[in-house]
Each structure stands twice: as structure tokens, then as C-alpha cells.
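INTERNAL TRANSFER SHEET
From: sequence group
To: structure group
Subject: Aldehyde oxidase 2-like

Please process the attached sequence and return the structure record in the designated field. Keep the field labels unchanged so the import script can parse them.
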Amino acid sequence: MSCPPKSDDLVFFVNGRKVIERNADPEVTLLNFLRKNLRLTGTKYACGRGGCGACTVMVSKHDPVSAKIRHFSITACLVPICSLYGAAVTTVEGIGSINTRLHPVQERIARSHGTQCGFCTPGMVMSMYTLLRNHLQPSEEQLMEALGGNLCRCTGYRPILASGRTFCVESTDCQKKRTGKCCLDLGGNDSSSLSRESDICTDLFVEEEFQPLDPTQELIFPPELLRMAKNPEKQTLTFHGERVTWISPGTLKDLLELKAKHPEAPLILGNTSLGPAMKSQGRVHPILLSPARISELSMVFKTSDGLTIGAGCSLAQVKDILAEQVSELPEEKTQTYRALLKHLKCLAGQQIRNMASLGGHVISRHCYSDLNPILVVGNATLNLISEEGTRQIPLNDHFLAGLASADLKPEEILESVYLPHSQKWEFVSAFRQAQCQQNALADVSAGMRVILEEATDTIKELSLSYGGVGEATIGAHKSCQQLIGRPWNEPMLEEACRLLLEEVSLPGWAPGGRVEFKRTLVVSFFFKFYLEVLQELKKLVKVSPDSHHYPEISDRFLSALEDFPVTGPRGVQRYQSVDSHQSLQDPVGRPIMHLSGLKHATGEAIFCDDIPMVDRELFMVLVTSTKAHAKIISIDLSEALELPGVVDVITAEDIPGTNGAEDDKLLAVDEVLCVGQIICAVVAETDVQAKRAIEKIQITYKDLEPIIFTINDAIKHNSFLCPEKKLEQGNIEEAFEKVDQIVEGEVHVGGQEHFYMETQRVIVIPKAEDKELDIYVSTQDPAHVQKTVSSTLNIPINRITCHVKRVGGGFGGKVGRPAVFGAIAAVGAIKTGRPIRLVLDREDDMLITGGRHPLFGKYKVGFMNNGRIKALDIECFINGGCTLDDSEQVTEFLILKLENAYKIHNLRFRGRACMTNLPSNTAFRGFGFPQGTLITESCITAVAAKCGLLPEEIREKNMYKTIDKTIYKQAFSPETLIRCWNECLDKSSFHSRRIQVEEFNKKNYWKKKGIAIIPMKFSVGFAATSYHQAAALVHIYTDGSVLVTHGGNELGQGIHTKMLQVASRELKLPMSFMHISETSTATVPNTIATAASIGSDVNGKAVQNACQILLKRLEPIIKKNPGGTWEDWIEAAFEQRISLSATGYFRGYKADMDWEKGEGDPFPYYVYGAACSEVEIDCLTGAHKGLGESGMFLGSSVFFAITDAVAAACKERDIVEDFIVKSPATPEQVRMACADRFTEMVFQFFTSEKMDPPNSINLSFGGLQRRRNRNMNWALFDQKVSVSQNSCDKALQAIVYSDS
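Return from structure group:
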């Protein structure tokens, strides 16, 4: 047997310590190495694709070109460890610890309340830390850029950015101003006590208390690595893995020899494209060539006519190089560079730009590339090199299409890219539209260049290139050729649009869909380019008055030239100050930092998968269905079981107890109902072995009919999960006969992925006796996991203990599903007798688990001409997926909450949950309320449009005004609701903003603003009394310390912090005396899910009860020795045999609902709120700038503000209303609703070509559906209107109070 080839030693540093890996595997990422080999678990796995930033670390390298140390952030999930030779890695553990010294970044993000669940926090910290290593006093723009690649699912970014702003120079954060008044406080005349300045506070932290940033305390670049860098070894390094060999040559000559020897081997630098592609396609390259040590590939050469950038330069370096050129050269020479810079600012996140190389971006030839269309029109040249020598090829459409005649030869590599300077009378622009402004793939991108004959408007050269509209970047050569010699004027514009639609062909059935939208962008972008060139020509005229006369641009069209700026949130949290007489020791009502905040920031907070491996632990990976509806004919496990490391495969036959419910199996038997349904599970010694084994399991299916995906399909097949739910009051039919007007409409609401940062995960540890199990699980409901495991294994519940330390986000997605994964893992643990760890990849998590229920609603609303609604009939259908899960309860809650804040005397609400062949949808924030109430608010918008009144007038007219009863006969007082509404109107200066919005819209044709204010009446809790009970267990130890345990789970909402605040107040003891370890079914049994916005409420009452019991027991001792200390009293109590442990209990709120009668008191109480949002939309692209999620449903104020803006555009375009609403408000929806000449041209093209128009041809939005107006004209150059304001002045005010 031959010995495996010997690998070179991989040498790098982690947190100042030298790492020598003698058997480096090229398939191992830095993330896995840090977590598994070095046990540095602060760096988190969340997406595995470099898209979320949870695994951000800092890498430091010596740059041979600049001879300086480069510090840059990267996503560790993409970086192969073999690429780190000679690098220094710094993780969150390496910059500070609660046991030694906190770094200022860690301290400030915690004390600024920038952590909730804390799973994303280490990545946030490392992005900010890297920024500060490069810029001691960064600008706010640099801060935003640094955090652009980091996602947070909890906080909404405001407090995270607030912590970062404390380092910024000239910070405009309101806490910097020291005026004692919030910079966003517009004042108001509300006389309520809560709104008086003396009762309101906005200070969440005291900046003066933060420790200063001292750069002298940072880790230095290891001297050993510096010596290695200055005297680099030229030998080739080779690292052999089981399947892949990594070769890193030390010289360019060696690289070219290797490329000639291994022509099929790809070059790998950042791994941002190759890595994800290999993972998704399951492809393995036996040999990878790394040119990272070749300094020639990072060289930059400047000449009088252009710029040559090495292919190995990262996109971040390219951005800096181009910015330097723009600052040094005349504007006329930097047109292409400016266009590239524009897209580099929003291409991916900072970490990806730091990793991805220019050469990799070009060679990858992605059809959606942001840079390649600009490089094409900028006449970029690719400098190629091989052993045979050098040659140049143009970066053009033929190259990007992969034509052999225009491509690299197998033995060639890309050495550099040459970018020529632009010249006078040459204009270059770049455009892109994506689902969001930053860090998102472009739907369509474009590069455009024109050269005009000197001092004329005659086209000399024209080049247009598009990404996202085909399998490769596409150039419009024929169109450009036909336009040469034409004047740059309106007839040329119309002709150009016609030619482009003919040449940039995108049939209605094109992959990826959204065809009409993309084709509209093709011509909309050209129109923007047309205007930009005219604007630039106007500047030249000012410089040279004798130049040619060019067409004037109407002031109303100037806003089409402006891109939305990237700005950070400017919100301020306002809270009621505590009473001046409240004890300073009493923490209730004060902005207490999250108990785990500092541990979140240092990476020392332990999540489920951070728990160290236990002895003999196995890894489990799930095998899921690839069919939507099929019969399982056979499952062949033989090949998988023969693989090394595979211990067993768990199937339904291995379950000793109950295999789930009859219609919801844990493991599929005989039939699968959706893609992603779990069929079996592989257990192996490592996760890599388990993942390789699942590829070898052969499952034979026979397709079954019908296959139902949509709500419409389900209705057609009468496919429902449960009976209809219905509520009715008044006489709806009679009311419809007496109203002035009736409107009928539809509402379509899309689904939503939970995207909790921490994927589903569980560790099951079997004990040595009595069939006991310890289960560590990320869940909102450990008791449900406990019960499910019990029934699955057929053992008593008392043998199973579930532990929840903390959960990295849940949002409803970890209520029911963790029980499934816990039960399957438990079966594996019992069968093998070994501990099982099950951690879902992000892909599997999104495939297997459901999300928010998509909804289709139909409404009929009858109203008087003054806007008073007399009758409302709503029928809802939600897509429940293939099993019932929580869909019946979601339907019930949706129906119960449909009326929102409005008193309408005649109502009929009906709801059904549809059964489809999709993974079961489940609980999600709001639990049906956001989808359902969107219908109600859409009715309001429709009524307003028909009455010619403003939506806020209709809302106010129909709102509850006095003590009343809901449709289900539960009494409540709307006093707080009205107070919220009035305060929001006042604090947002709503009416003056409305006037400003209308003025803006009169002056701007291509940009429109909208404003909306939405009220909310939200009922908390479950519609059942038993689900409101809670228990707590409080121990006082003889040293006076207190241990609190309760039934709630820490999901990021700070429930443990709140419980200690309650205990502190009740026991009159500082929080420092107290501790919460975890939630455990062994200490507090029979708990209820932490959900329904009531966890802190009911568990707080249980903790309060336990503390009151203990204090009652201590009363005689305290009375006897009132001057004693707490420790004295506890010692005396122990000596007197007084129990220092108490169980607290809260029986819960009474809640019931009789669906037969349609009445009850299903909810303990209501919370109320109101939110105002102002947005601005770009009618040409659908881009929009608004403010994001305020509490719960209140974020819909952004949606209706967009609706308002779209309505303004449609009114100006004389578009007939049709009441179909679609959510979410994507750029596609917005653009296609703002019908104009360009959308009309697209439609006419489909008609003239006799092509079937795409399904999106009747896209509608916000109650306004486009109707083709064939009389639309260009109307480009009308009389001038002065524009006083082009900037987007946005505001979001949200007021939320509770009546409990």
C-alpha cells in the first residue's frame, strides 16, 4: 500500500499564536478550523455562503507591493485554510474577553444595546474592529460600508450603528450633541403627561463612561510572519487532502508551469465564486492552484493613457485604486473609473470585496455581473500570460459568452486588466437595479458609453452592455451601429429604445422570470443615460458658450438623475423616565444592558453548537425528498453504509414509539408530500462523512398527482387542512344594499423565511442508565421537544431533560420544528448508544422548515361617500403547506384580528388553510396578524381612492372611538389607541409632511414621495387559558446569592434580564446578587412556548410570586434585625430552618373562544400603536427609500407610503384604478405599477412580435393596476418648474403602548 503524498506545513497565526497544520485539507474552511480544531466558537456558522457576516474575522497580511501590513475583514466560511499561509487571523476572542480586558468595540456595542440574540454580534464586532485598525476615526460612510456585509435579524441596526458612531469623527448622532434634546424631536402640542419632556428620556448610554480606544494595545503583526514576508520562500507549497490537492507556487514562472501541467485546474484566490459553486453543484476539483503568493498579479501600473490593475487585486483594492485615480486625474479622463466605483460601492459586502479578486470576477463571467458591462463599454483589455508568452484580448461580449476564439487558452492565466482613460466628449455611466440597494445581486445591470463629435451632439461611438438579461453579459451592437451619426435628441431616444427592445431579446418564458420588468429596465436605464449625457453637455456649454445648443431638460425630470444615497437609520428610542422617588437600586424601567451583552460581544456566550464535543459523539445529517408528491418505491442504503466513518442510517423502522402524527410523520413512510420532507438520517463520525454518505443513498420514487403549490391550485382541488373559520356581526347583505359605493379587491401577500441567524440544531446525550437523555436544543418550547421525544422513544417524560441556554433567534420558527429534529436525533442516540449532534446547514434549514404563510384575500367593502364604512366582507386563504402544523391557529388568529383598529358594524370574516405540496408553514412573528390586517388597511386605501379623500381621513373616521366590543364580543377601551394615533400625528408633523410630499410630487415626474400613517390594535397571548400559566423557581443560597429559573426562553428579547429586574425589585436586592443559568425542563416543568408576545409577562408574574413567597418567609427575621445585611438575614433564616427555595406560579389570564357562537374573550389584553413613514420611489427603476421594520405590523406604514407614492405617479399618468394589492413591495412591483411610455413600449413589443407576454404583464400594486394608455407621450420637455427640494426627507415615528 503506497503512502499518501506528504504535505508541506501550513504556517499562520491566530490571535497572536502560531499555528502549524501539518495535514492541511484544502476542503476545510477557516470557520471549521477555528470552531473544531482551535475551539474558538465565537466565530459563528449562519449561512455558509459569505452572505451574512456572522463568521467575520480579521486577516492581516504583508502587502509586497506597498510593503505595508493590510488588515481586512473576511467571512471565514468561504476561506480555505490553505490560503492563509503567512497570514495572521484575529477572531473576536483575540481582541478582548470579560475575563481579561474588553476591547472598546465590544464594550460599546453591548452597552449601546446593540445585541439581542447575540448570534451576529461577534461578526459585527470584528467588522468594526477591522475598520478601526485601518481608520482610527472613521467617517459614518466608512462605518456603514464596513457593516454592509453583516446581517442582524433582531435589532434593526439602529443601536449597532449607534455604538459604531461613538468612534466616528464628526458624528451626527444625537447623543453627541449634549443638548439634552433629541435631534429628531419635532415637538408637538400633546398635553398628555407621557409626552412632557420631563417624563421622556432618550439616553440609552453615557458615552463618557466608555473606555477610550488605545491603538497601542492592539495585537502586532507577528514578527515571524514579517520576516517570512520580507524574505519569501520561492518554493511551491503543496497541501494534500483526501479529495483535493492545493498547490501554491512561489513564483510566476512556477505558476505558469503548473497551469501548463494542469490546464483544467482553476485558480483560486478569494473563493467567493468557486467555493459556493462547488458546494451547490457538489463538484470537486482534484487540483486547485493558488496564485496568492505571486506579487506580479497584484501590480498596478499607471500610464498617460490608462491604468493596468493586477488580476490578483481584491475588489476592495480596485476600489481604492480607482478612487485615487479619480482624485488625481481630470474628470474627463475618469468617466469609466467613476462608473466602476459607483457599482463597487454596492457590490456585495465589505468582506466579499476584500476577498474577491478582479481577475476572478472577470473570469467567472456571471450573467448578473455589475462590473463586466462597464468594463466592456470601457474597452478594457485582458492581459494574458502563459509559458508561451503574453497576449492581449479585448474584454467583450464574445469573451463573456465563452466563445473559444475569444477566450483564454487552457494553459493561460489572466495577469492584469487594462483600463484606458476616457476622453473629452466621452460619457460613461453605470446602472443597476436589485432587490435592495446593497449586498444583493442585480436584476439588471448596465454599462453605457457614448462619444460625441467634438462640440456637437452627433454620436461618434456608442456602446451599451447589459447584465442580468441573458446567460451572459449582452451588448447591443446592432442598435449602437444604427445610431451612429444621429443627434443626441428625443427622436434618437425613441428610436434607440425601439432598437434595444428588438436586439436585447428576452422572451416571456426566459429563465428567472420578471421578463417585462427587466425589459423595461433596459430602456429605462438608457433614458437615464440620455438625461445624464444632456446634463453633462449642459455643463460643457457653460464652459464653452460657443458650443452647440443642446435640448433643455425640464426641471421636473432632473430627479431621474439622482441615485438614492446610502444612509444609516436615524431613529431615536424614547422611553418614559422612572419616577424620581424610585430607588436607585430598583432596575425596573431603566435601560439595563442585556445580561449576556458583553458575552455576546466577546464570543463567550455559548450557543447550542458551541458546546464542546462529548466523548464518542456522532454527527447526524438528514436525507430529504427530492419530489413534491410521490410514492417511495425503495430506499437503498448499502452504498452509504460502506463508506468510512458511517455508523448507521436511521429510518422510520428504527422508531420505537410514535412516528409523529398520522398526517405529519417525523420520517416519511411510503409517501412524500413535499420536497424537503425528511426520509431518513445518516449518523457518522464526522459531519463531512455524514454529508458524503447522504449522496450515496438511492431512493426510487413514483410521482403522484395532483401536485399543488399555490393557493389557487388548492382552491381548485378543494385541498384544505381544516374547516373554515368564520366570524360575523350585523346584517352584511342588508348593509351592502344601503351604501353609496361598493369596492371589491384582492390582496396577495408573499411568504417569508424566518432566517434566524442560528440554524436549527440539537445535541442529544444518552445517559448510562434508566434511558435518561440530556437534550441541548435551540428552541422556543423545550417542553414540546421533551414531550415529542418521549412519545417517539416510548419512554416517560421524566427521563428526558431539555436544556436551553440561549437561542440565536426564533421568530416563531423554533416553536414546533425543533421537536422534530430533537426526536430524530434522539432515535439515533438510542439506537447507537452514542451522543448525536444535528446542526442544519442553511440550505437544509430553509428547505425543510416552513415560514410565514402566504395569503390570498378577497374583500368587498361598502361605504358612504363621506368615507364611513358600513359593511366589510373578507375571505382569506393561507398556504399551509403539506401538514397542519400551526395553520389552523394561524387562520383563527388572522380572523380574530382582521378588524384591527376599526369599528365597522356589519362584518363577515372567513378563513381557510390550504393544503399544498410545500413544507409546512408555521408560526411567525404576528401569527397571521400582519397578513390579515394588510387586507383591512388595503380596504381603507381603496375607500379613500374612491371617495377622493386621504387614507388617514378614512382611518380616523372609522376608528374605534369609545368603549366597545370587538366582532367576537370582547370589550375594550380604545383610549390608548386614540392617544397613540394623535401622538404619532403630532410627533411626526404628519399634516405638514403631507403638504411637503404633495409639493414634491408636483415638481418631480420621475421621483415620487408617499406618506402613510397606520394604527394598530394588537392582541397578545394565546386564545386559551392554559397557555398563559407559568412557573418559576427561586433559590437563595447561604452566601446571599440568588438563582432564578423560569419557564421562558432567551431568544434575544432579554427575558432573563427582565426576570432579574423583577426579582431585584421584589427582593430589594441588586441584580449583581442574582443569576440565571438556563431554562431547563428539570427545574421548571410543563412550560409553555415563549411566544405570542407574552413570555416576559407571565413568567415575570411567576418570578414575582416566588420572590414574594421568599420575602414573606424572611419578614420575621428582617423585623427582628432591621439593621442587618441581606447576608445576615439569609444566614439567620438558614439557622432557623426557613426554606430558602420557592416555586412561584402564575395561573394565567383567562382566555377562551367559542367558534360555534363566534364569541369569547380570547385575549388577555391589547397593545396599541401607530406609525408614520415617508418614502421616495424612483418611477423608472422601482427603487425606493423608506424606513424599515417598526414594531410588528407597524412596518406596513412603509408599504402604504410606497402605495401612496405609486398612487401619485399613477394619478399624474392618468392610470385607471383597479384594487389588487401585492406584497412585498418589490422594485418590480413599484416599477411596473408606474406605467409610462417605456412600459408601454415593452407591451407593444410583445404584441407586435406575437409573443406571449409574461405572466407579470398585469402587475399591480397598492390598489392601482396599470391599464395601457396608448395615448402616452414622451412629455420630456415641458415648461421649467423650479425645484426647491430633491432630497428624500424621511421620517418614521412609532408609538406603542399597552393597556395592561
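Handover comment: The longest strand covers residues 869-881. Residues 612-665+682-705+754-848 form a domain with the Aldehyde Oxidoreductase; domain 4 fold (CATH 3.30.365.10).
Transfer complete.
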